[in-house]
Amino acid sequence: MKFDKAAGENTLFDNAEFVGRPTHRIDGPLKVTGTAPYAYERHDVVEGQLYGYPLGSAISHGLIVSMDAEAARNAPGVRAVVTTLEIDPLEKGMNNVARLFGGAEVQHYHQAIAVVVADSFEQARAAASLIEVEYEKGDPADYDLGAAFERLQGSGEMDTDTGDVEAAFSSAAALLDEMYHTPSQSHMAMEPHASIVDWSDGDQMTVWTSNQMINWNHGSLATTFGLDEDKIRVESPYIGGGFGGKLWLRADAVLAALGSRAAGAPVKLALPRPFIMNNTTHRSETVQRIRLAAGEDGKLTGIWHEAASHALPDGRGEDATAQTPFFYASDSIRAKHHIVTMSLPESADMRAPGEAAGLMALEVAMDEMAEKLGMDPVEFRKVNDTQVNPSNPEQEFSDRNFVECLDRGAEAFRWTDRNTAPGATRDGQWLVGHGVAGAYRGALVLPSGSRALLEGGKLVIETDMTDIGTGSYTILAQTAAETMGLTLDDVEMRMGNSAYPVSSGSGGQFGAASSSAGVYAACMALRERIAEQLGVEEAEFRDGRVIAGDTDRALSELEGQIDAVDSIEWGDFQSEYQMATFGAHFVEVGVHAGTGETRVRRMLAVCDSGRILNPITARSQVIGGMTMAVGAALSEDMALDSGRGMFANHDLAGYEVAVHADIPEQEVIFIDTLDPVASPLKAKGVGELGVCGVAAAVANAVYNATGVRVREYPVTLDKLIGGLPAIG
Amino acid sequence: MRAFSYEKVTDPAQAAARAAEVEGAKFLAGGTNLLDLMKLEIERPAHVIDVNGLGLDEITETEEGGLRIGALVTNTALSADARIRRNYAVLTRAIAAGASGQLRNKATTGGNLLQRTRCPYFYDTAQPCNKRAPGSGCAALSEGAFSRQLGVIGTSDACIATHPSDMAVGMRVLDAVVETVTPEGMTRSIPLEEFHLLPGDTPERENALMPGELITAVTLPAPVGGEQKYHKVRDRASYAFALVSVALIRQPDGTERVALGGVAPKPWRSAAADAELSNGAAAVMAELLGGARPTEENAFKITLAERTLAAMLAEE
Ligand SMILES: Cc1cc2nc3c(=O)[nH]c(=O)nc-3n(C[C@H](O)[C@H](O)[C@H](O)COP(=O)(O)OP(=O)(O)OC[C@H]3O[C@@H](n4cnc5c(N)ncnc54)[C@H](O)[C@@H]3O)c2cc1C
Ligand code: SF4
Question: Domain span at residue A614?
Answer without folding.
Answer: 381-443+579-723
